[in-house]
Design a protein that fits this description.
The chain has 12 helices and 2 strands, in the order H-H-H-H-H-H-H-H-E-E-H-H-H-H. It is mainly alpha-helical.
Length: about 300
């Protein structure tokens, strides 16, 4: 009995031992088969694909944003250019001076008269005159006439209370009459640095706030206005040439001054006519702009 019980104990022990070992091997094999190696490997490409898929719309959205921003910049540039052009047009409209032209038939007729007078008489005579007398001599003659007309400019400066300019006119007259040899040379400008100015009674009236009135073209004289016509009459009383006797001599001196002046500016009138759509209107506008500038100086 004892021996049989021992044998049974030994068999039980062996059975328990082998069952434990076998279960351990099975569990180990199952653990090896269920390791997360494959899952991590399979998950990595899935994550990268998702990132790629997510990056694609981001790049598309960025490109769309850049295109939208560039379009906005272009639109803003065009709007800025259009606004600047409108401002320039408005400024030009404001600067353009409108002058009444109720005497249009008379003015147009006198414009054509002066035009033919220039091309048929003044220009040919001035060309012949410039061929005889060199330009330096013609400039010297122009200086003499400018010096003689000092009383006109002196009175204009004085009436506008331009005291410094009126004193400069006296200094220029005295200096050019002596050092400049009766005004042939502009010695006051070269030696004293006193530049010449253009003043007349028409500018003086304009500085008082008197408008042009209306536009008028005079034969032999050219474009003018009601205000500047009265100013020119006053200038005539102050110009010493008009006091030369006999009257034919005074007219001859004035005509010679006109020919000398035209000889120094041949081509200016032709260029103005070529560049103008309507020469009459262009000359009228140019005259009003020129007089406006002179009044503001």
């Amino acid at each position: 009995m004892k021996s049989s019980s021992v044998v049974l104990l030994v068999l039980c022990f062996l059975f328990c031992f082998f069952t434990n070992v076998f279960s351990d091997t099975l569990s180990s094999s199952e653990e090896k088969s269920t390791k997360p190696i494959d899952t991590t490997i399979s998950q990595e490409p899935k994550a990268s694909e998702q990132e790629i898929v997510q990056s694609v719309p981001e790049t598309k959205s960025e490109s769309v944003k850049s295109e939208i921003s560039s379009e906005d910049i272009k639109k803003s540039d065009t709007q800025a250019k259009e606004s600047s052009q409108q401002e320039i047009i408005e400024e030009e409209k404001e600067e353009t001076i409108q002058i009444a032209d109720p005497l249009y038939p008379w003015n147009k007729a006198m414009y054509h008269f002066n035009d033919k007078l220039y091309f048929w008489v003044l220009k040919p005579v001035s060309k012949g005159y410039s061929a005889i007398l060199p330009e330096d001599m013609r400039i010297a003659v122009s200086n003499v006439f400018y010096n003689i007309a000092t009383p006109v400019r002196f009175a204009g400066c004085l009436l506008q209370l331009k005291i410094k300019d009126s004193v400069n006119e006296l200094i220029r007259f005295l200096y050019n009459s002596t050092a400049g040899v009766l005004g042939l040379a502009d010695a006051a400008k070269e030696d004293l640095g006193i530049a010449r100015k253009e003043e007349d009674l028409g500018q003086t009236l304009g500085s008082y706030g008197i408008g042009h009135g209306f536009y008028i073209v005079w034969p032999f004289i050219g474009p003018s206005s009601l205000r500047d016509t009265f100013g020119k009459i006053g200038d005539g009383f102050l110009d010493p040439v008009n006091y030369v006797n006999p009257a034919e001599a005074s007219i001859g001196i004035t005509a010679y001054d006109k020919v000398n002046t035209v000889s120094l500016h041949i081509g200016d009138y032709e260029d103005l006519k070529k560049s103008a759509i309507d020469p009459y209107v262009s000359i009228r506008d140019a005259y009003t702009q020129y007089r406006k500038k002179k009044v503001e100086e």
